[in-house]
């Protein structure tokens, strides 16, 4: 990856001689990306080594960087872009990146800020180096996104949703190491796309997209985001909590048990981490995990620790009346999940709470934080484990029906 | 020698692309339906979905080939996709209208793809079947809930007016008719909604075969509404008269069902008779 290769590539892509592509044009995009990503780096670094769904993220980042530098060599094969020094087709992408950043800042979503940094860097590369170069750099952007924490979780959710959409019974999401395979599959797809684009470039068939086409691509992405939000609207309910000083109720008897090392690692910044095991004489067992924190970032969705413990999720969606969990009129806005590990079956319900309201997902919690800042936040996870779907679901239903829940008025 | 053959093969393959896109749209449309609406409700829903799917495939077959991103129609696609985004983001705030905005976002997004792939003209031809498939049928229960009372009230009001021409005092409270000693309540089942749903697909096929262009088709199809109101009002009057002469037993059982079917035939006949208002404008291209 010599400087000469970069200079040649620059000459080829812009088509106005080396003077038209000074080194600043080549370096501007990666430097800007690095600058925008810098505040997120500590969080990214920590997640790579503590979260099972985000492990090995640095490999994808490394691959992305390698691809970026490789493109500088490939540029010599790309036909020149005649015309202005700035490719205006890049503006919609920059607008999208800025929009995501504003949303990330408004809701305090770290992954949105990091993704926006990558998108803005790529858009600047488009503006300065042309659409064909940006298309060749697309795999680097995709690999960079795969390196970010939370993308593994989103891929897992997408996989479960795909199974639900296709109506495939028994379709389950991969457990922790399986998510890495899923990410590796996406990465291979991105690299294959890059090779295809490079080949088309060598054949002279890689055209620079028109501004209208890029504007359409961005509009479709925004429209698809709106559709996803419409399908998964944030919902709020009463702040339901388990009455803590009642260790025995109905047929259940509870005891405090130690949390697992994975849970300890994931919720290391929490103010309180407590786990109880409730059991009955006939062998039903339900665990209740309670995490409290002053910082919403210290809370995670339970899919992280479950996937890290080898559970394969087959269902993960919002709690509905049809689920028949006996919270009564004071049901929290919650998520329900089912998972399998070998012959074991798990059925669970979880929700995030502030003193004001409950929510079934972290996005709702972030929204709560903006609505009523400076409060204490908690996550409650109730899980039942059995040998078959029915027994786990029945144990969970029995426990929820008999447990002493409280929903203090805000 | 082989070059023309190759060109023909490429052109032949290209002709299949629109049909493939159509098949994908129909498959997505079937996924977008609620099984309870499609299978558990009147046959009219299934017929509407089938008609929309048929029209989609038929019209895309005429598209010839893909016109990916040509002309200025891409900006129309951008506008439609952004409208889909607005509908999607507004959906969580829309309360009872949430399903309408959700399905609307999906329909607009797909319509934008049609604009970009086949041009604005083809999108205009596909707009009606796409909206029926992705928006109208999936939210029919919502329409029914919204239209039930107005239709019941209208039929009761018109029936009261007709009955008041004859002897005896007619009183109307909401949707309940009092005629002498007799009380007839126009319930949801008597609202005429089922009649309307059945007549909708009859009307759709009629206007497709009799007219060319959206405007005459739409205006002619609108006549289905007065046809349904007239037929339903006459059904309510017939039931009231029947109950007065033969007893209230006529309000339930076989006579009630028979009168219902007669009303369906009457509504269809009235709609077809109204063709005099909208004579066939041109041989339909479909």
Descriptive labels:
A: 410 residues, alpha+beta, 2 domains, ten-stranded antiparallel sheet, two-stranded antiparallel ribbon, disordered N terminus, B: 286 residues, three-stranded antiparallel sheet, 3 strands, elongated
Describe the structure.
The complex is a heterodimer of chains A (410) and B (286). Chain A is an alpha+beta fold and 410 residues long. Chain A has helices at 3-14, 23-37, 41-50, 57-74, 91-107, 110-129, 131-147, 151-165, 176-202, 211-231, 261-266, 303-308, 362-371, 389-402; strands at residues 236-237, 241-242, 248-249, 252-256, 272-279, 285-293, 312-318, 335-341, 344-353, 358-359, 377-386, 405-406. In chain A, strands 1, 3, 4, 5, 6, 7, 8, 9, 10 and 11 form a 10-stranded antiparallel sheet that branches. In chain A, strands 2-12 form a two-stranded antiparallel ribbon. Chain B has 2 domains: 2-138, no CATH class; 143-276, no CATH class. Helices cover 72% and strands 4% of the residues of chain B. Chain B has a 3-stranded antiparallel sheet, covered by helices on one side. In chain B, α3 runs parallel beside α8 (193-210). The radius of gyration of chain B is 23 Å and the shape is elongated. The mean pLDDT of chain B is 83. The A-B interface holds A 165, 210, 212-213, 215-216, 219-220, 222-231, 233-234 and B 31, 69, 72, 74-75, 77-78, 81-82, 84-89, 91-92, 98, 101-102, 105-106, 108-109, 112-113, 116.
